[in-house]
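Agenda item 2: cobalt (II) ion complex prediction
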Amino acid sequence: MILKNKNDKIGRNDPCPCGSGLKYKKCCLLKKGTGYRDIKNLYLQKYRIRLKEKEDIEGIRKAGQLAIELLRLVKDEIRPGITTDDINTLVHEFTIKNNAISAPLNYRGFPKSVCVSVNEVVCHGIPGKRILKDGDIVNVDVTPILNGYYADANQTFFVGSPSSETRKIVRVARESLKVARSMVRPGNTIGDIGWAIQKYAEREGCSVVREFVGHGVGFEFHEPPEIPHYGLKGKGIGLVPGMVFTIEPMINLGRKNVLILEDKWTVVTADGSLSAQFEQTLAVTENGYESLTPFDL
Ligand code: MF3
Ligand code: CO
Ligand code: CO
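Presented output:
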């Protein structure tokens, strides 16, 4: 999870990594001419990152539309009294009805079609008999595969009426994704993303989970690179058009430490404090980003 290579950043004025001799901003940053093929190869060789073509992004965008429909559907059903398994049923059936597959199901032995994480559960909650009660927060993380393309997104919802504590952690988690998203453009680095989240969330008195990171996505569930939600400005791999990855900061109201339960999946805060998360799949474009799982933040 630690970014080791100090020399990965490509500045706008640096020589283009494709070897053209031009400045990066005058070459592959523009994704024009012959440079793009070369940078695609460079990113594959150097980082194992598979840059996406227009038609790939189109495919992920369609999967992303299904992801946000799923989240909308779930949102409307969330109320005190339903179980986390009810959410699983909803996600599973709607996914199948749309000729898609739920990536979580049987992924490394995960037994359900969606992750449902309540209150102190940070992520990877397994749907089951737990009944949602008034005042809970619940994160629902969906990853449909449509025509072979993966899109990954999650949101944290209030169950019934929120307390001032649940309001705060959900606000900070939401805002964390928003500040992170605003860093996504060619010439910035992966480190810039984590840096922006950490600076914002810690200033709000919250903490950032270290053990789980965002990731490349699209052709597979989890592809290179890792996207840490903490870090240093200017460090890490340079962002280039065609990169598609998630940002999914897990923000705790208390300390950052987490534990994994006996079921080998459920991640909880070590201090029992509330945790919230929002996730989107983003594509780096020539002048910024496009969310392929767009919902308002
Ligand atoms: N959707 C999660 C993510 O954002 C991964 C869940 S893995 C599972 O990366 F097996 F628990 F589904
Ligand atoms: Co993800
Ligand atoms: Co996810």
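Discussion summary: Confidence is low (pLDDT under 50) at residues 1-7.
Owner for follow-up: CH.
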